[in-house]
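[SOLVED] Predicted holo structure with zinc ion

Edit: marking solved, answer below. Original request kept for reference. I posted the sequence and ligand SMILES and asked for the 3D complex as structure tokens.
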Amino acid sequence: MMAGPMAPGVCPRCGGPNPRSAAFCQFCSAPLPGVPSPEPVPVRPGGPDSFQLATSGQPEYPVARVVLLIFGILLFVGGLVLFGIAASVHQTVQSFNQACMQNPTCTPESDPSGAITGVGVAVLIIGIILLIVAGILYRGD
Ligand SMILES: [Zn+2]
């Protein structure tokens, strides 16, 4: 039984003051309500407001952060994959052009590996930015 400090066992029937622990009125022996409307802030029962604040205020893993992390990692890895593709394209074109030099009718291929590397750098940078933003979101709570 909790004891409210404001209205300690005031009888609902006769209004007589009773000790907080009293179950029945000392004057008219009417049954007393255990806790007469606790004025102080209820810690445990809380309200719907405090519950919503607690759940929406500090989420463990905000969805936006998870999405940013996933996309950041994907772009980061994608940039590295593009580097690999560019390297292999470069090697292929170079060996083709080397063979081509010995054939006068052959026109050498242009090497697109530079452009692929550029795209890879851009994708990698975007991925890193997303990861940084995700980190900022995580810290800014
Ligand atoms: Zn009474």
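OP edit: The chain has three helices and no strands. Thanks to everyone who chimed in.
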